[in-house]
Write a structure and sequence with these properties.
- By secondary structure, the chain is mostly helical.
- It has one domain.
- Helices cover about 80% and strands about 5% of the residues.
- The protein has helices at about 1-30, 30-40, 45-50, 50-65, 90-125, 130-160, 160-175, 185-190, 195-265, and strands spanning about 75-80, 80-85.
- A two-stranded antiparallel ribbon has the order 1-2.
- Helix 1 runs antiparallel to helix 5.
- It is elongated and about 105 Å long.
């Protein structure tokens, strides 16, 4: 039962890590300060001949649409002193529909994942009720190790060659080539350059890693504490058995002496 309990906790922990990663994405997308600082660092307003505020508002419009908070990506901005529609290409509109569908699908999986990992943790606790915390903590450590192999591979790939990673990411998730924009005509690709996504991914990893490492530290402490307590209990049992054995020997020794003395008389 204990092994099954740990196995359930391991699967639940892998789902929990996915939940944390997606939630970190949501937090990063709401970080307006990061978006503003990123555009300032990249000097995007000057390159696009538009104000910093219009840039930030346009990016937030895309994020709101992706998250299903608005019905379209239409937003008016001022470029070269003239009011114009920011995203005016059909390709941009259709691609963002694909992005929204993908995002909302993964979000539904995240929401189901919250229920799933809680149910798995509960089952793991019921199967090893007396050592439930230890089983769940051990399962988290194993789950974190398995997920770290996958995340580590992806992270190393992205760190060494982000362009290759980003291209493969789009080819895997999208069944068309609408994500391939012409930078000479598309404002969308210009306000969302590769460097922007690179820094966004790093931000997401930082947010998620903070929570995941904290949980890992807690899990390790719980496992070590349990093992230490169990070792002490084993020592106490051995000590009690030794004491009981010595008492038994000492209680039987006088009888033998008395019988020997009686025989001698």
């Amino acid at each position: 039962m204990k092994k099954i309990s740990v196995a359930l906790a391991t699967v639940g922990s892998m789902i929990l890590i996915f939940v944390i990663m997606f939630t970190a994405l949501e937090v990063a997308l709401r970080d307006t300060a990061f978006i503003n600082n990123e555009y300032t660092r990249l000097g995007m307003a000057k390159k696009m001949n538009m104000s910093q505020q219009d840039l930030v508002n346009s990016c937030k419009k895309l994020i709101d649409y992706m998250q299903g908070k608005t019905d379209s990506i239409d937003i008016m901005v001022t470029i070269d002193g003239e009011k114009t529609l920011m995203f005016d290409q059909e390709q941009e509109i259709v691609h963002m529909k694909d992005v929204q569908k993908l995002y909302l699908t993964v979000k539904r999986y995240r929401d189901m994942g919250i229920v799933a990992f809680l149910v798995l943790y509960l089952l793991a606790a019921l199967l090893s009720f007396r050592s439930a915390i230890h089983s769940i903590a051990k399962g988290y450590i194993l789950g974190a190790f398995i997920m770290s192999l996958f995340i580590g591979f992806i992270g190393t790939w992205a760190a060494l060659d982000f362009s290759s990673f980003w291209t493969s990411f789009h080819k895997t998730l999208f069944w068309n080539d609408l994500w391939l924009f012409d930078p000479t005509t598309s404002r969308m690709i210009n306000i969302l350059p590769e460097h922007f996504f690179h820094d966004m991914v790093i931000r997401i990893v930082i947010y998620a890693a903070g929570v995941l490492v904290l949980l890992l530290v807690i899990a390790v402490i719980l496992v070590l504490s349990y093992n230490h307590r169990r070792a002490k209990d084993m020592e106490k049992k051995k000590s009690h058995k030794k004491t009981a054995s010595e008492k038994t020997v000492s209680s039987t020794s006088p009888d033998r002496t008395d019988s020997n003395e009686s025989g001698a008389e």
